Amino acid sequence: MSTAERGKVRVEKGRYRLDGKFHYGYPNDPIWNEDGKLMGVTNPRDVTHVHMYGGEAPFFEGLGKGKLLGTCCDNPDCEADGSIFIPFRIHCPDCLGKNTIVDMTDTARKGATVHTFMTTERTGAFNTLPKPIRFVNVEFEGVPTILMGYLSVGKPEIGMKVVPIFNTASPTYTILDLSWVPDGTNESEIPEGFTF
Ligand SMILES: [Zn+2]
User: What is the CATH number of domain 54-195?
Assistant: First the structure.
């Protein structure tokens, strides 16, 4: 079945405009038991999910430009005063005020370490990362939160120094545009399309 008219979304005067088809159905198949009795049917479906980023959009746009953005609360009356949050938080969890965006790229390059890690061969549906996936929890100097990411080169170790790499050649505008490699990794070792 052709998916040439697959749905696209654009924004016009602050409103989302949807063009094309967002739902495709395909011919089904019967499910039989050993005695040839009908047990059910499969229902193939193909749905285009529209994921709005809202206030987190600058974070995802930044990755494609080689930038790691965090946020901070600069309300002087808040206990979190000065705390920087990565992952990107739109609002302060303590005073619920709107946070300010801070560029954390240089901090990440200088002082990111692996807090802990997990290696997995079993992935969810639609996984596009090479297996085994080396998930790393990345810690930054002076940041109270920890960022989940994936290592693209080498074997993860607790306390390992890592630096960010970004898919700047053809960004997907998803979290996969950000990955990590051990400090000192050569440019020739990083995945195609990624830059430091
Ligand atoms: Zn606050």
Answer: 2.40.50.140
